[in-house]
């Protein structure tokens, strides 16, 4: 049996742009993706802390180090520059693999989406 699990969480990132005329997706700084262990094309769930909207789309890699978190296409109507978001990376794994994970990697960022802390195999206390 496969289960869908959260493998990574980008906690309270700041939306740096919203491009309604783009085909779709979320652009995330490549450095953040590396730290999260996520890859371009992978599905993610994005929750807008500012208005409680939830969206699901795929990742595009942005330029490393510039802090990009850009919502492209339809979600640009629901996510605006300056909004705080939580991005959850998903994966399908076996139940045994899920038990060994110990929880998602959590990346904390400042208001410019620069990494302030990383917790691997993080568990809520």
How would you describe this structure to a colleague?
It is built from two helices and nine strands; from the N terminus they run E-E-E-H-E-E-E-E-H-E-E. Strands 2-6-3-5-4-7-1-8-9 form a nine-stranded mixed β-sheet. The termini are far apart. The chain has helices at 30-36, 95-101; strands at 2-14, 17-19, 25-29, 43-48, 54-62, 69-72, 84-94, 105-109, 115-119. The chain has one domain: Beta Barrel (Barwin-like endoglucanases). Strand 8 (105-109) and strand 9 form a beta hairpin. The radius of gyration is 14 Å and the shape is globular. By secondary structure, the chain is mainly beta. Helix content is 11%, strand content 49%.
Brief summary of the model shown:
The protein has helices at residues 30-36, 95-101, and strands at residues 2-14, 17-19, 25-29, 43-48, 54-62, 69-72, 84-94, 105-109, 115-119.
Name the features.
125 residues, Barwin-like endoglucanases, nine-stranded mixed β-sheet, 2 helices, 49% strand, globular
């Amino acid at each position: 049996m496969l289960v869908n699990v959260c493998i990574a969480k980008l906690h309270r990132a700041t939306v740096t742009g919203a491009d309604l005329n783009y085909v779709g997706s979320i652009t995330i700084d490549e450095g953040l993706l590396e730290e999260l262990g996520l890859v371009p094309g992978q599905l993610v769930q994005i929750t807008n802390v500012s208005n409680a909207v939830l969206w699901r789309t795929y990742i595009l890699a942005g330029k490393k180090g510039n802090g990009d978190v850009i919502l492209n296409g339809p979600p640009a109507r629901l996510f605006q520059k300056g909004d705080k978001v939580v991005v959850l990376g998903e994966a399908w794994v076996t139940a045994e693999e899920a038990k060994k994970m110990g929880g998602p990697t959590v990346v904390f960022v400042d208001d410019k989406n620069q990494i302030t802390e990383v917790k691997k195999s993080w568990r809520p206390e």
